[in-house]
């Protein structure tokens, strides 16, 4: 993806399930930092494009602070899920959990207001 090697991502705080599970009290920061790391140029471009498209829509519904809250809770939740269920030799980076959380928020908004849309 035109990005840094895995070892660099580990040094900068990538989510490594084995490390997080082994010493959660000292390594829990690895659930937040990977939100700001990406595997490369293509990875960050795809995430930013999706965030902009979905974020514009949801910001109009809910405002900036609610959008940011949903995004960060979803991102940390995604990293926690990854640390819990992924294999030992995986380095997790990116904001895909936040993007999926925003997509889920759009789905919830559509289901909630379905009768008002038609």
How many strand segments?
A: 0
Which segments are poorly predicted (pLDDT under 50) over 5 or more consecutive residues? Answer: none
Number of helices: 7
Number of domains: 1
The averaged pLDDT comes out at 90
Structural class: mainly alpha
Radius of gyration: 16 Å
Give the fraction of residues assigned to helices. 55-70%
Distance between the termini: 42 Å
Biggest beta sheet attributes? none
**Can you tell me the overall shape?**
elongated
Order of helices and strands: HHHHHHH
How much of the sequence lies in strands comes to under 5%
Overall description:
The structure is a single chain. By secondary structure, the protein is mostly helical. It has one domain (13-117). Helix content is 69%, strand content 0%. The chain has seven helices and no strands. The protein has helices spanning 6-12, 17-22, 24-27, 41-62, 64-85, 96-112, 114-117. Helix 4 crosses helix 5 (64-85) and helix 4 runs parallel beside helix 6 (96-112). The longest helix is centred in the middle third of the chain and has 22 residues, at 41-62. The protein is elongated and about 50 Å long. It starts with 5 loop residues before the first helix and ends with a helix.
């Amino acid at each position: 993806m035109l990005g840094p090697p895995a070892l660099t991502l580990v040094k900068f705080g990538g989510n490594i399930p084995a490390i997080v599970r082994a010493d959660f009290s000292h390594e829990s920061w690895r659930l937040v930092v990977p939100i700001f790391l990406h595997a490369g140029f293509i990875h960050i471009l795809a995430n930013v494009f999706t965030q902009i498209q979905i974020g514009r829509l949801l910001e109009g519904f809910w405002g900036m602070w609610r959008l940011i809250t949903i995004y960060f809770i979803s991102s940390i939740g995604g990293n926690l899920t990854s640390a819990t269920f992924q294999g030992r030799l995986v380095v997790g980076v990116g904001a895909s959990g936040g993007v999926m959380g925003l997509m889920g928020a759009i789905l919830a908004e559509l289901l909630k207001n379905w009768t008002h849309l038609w």
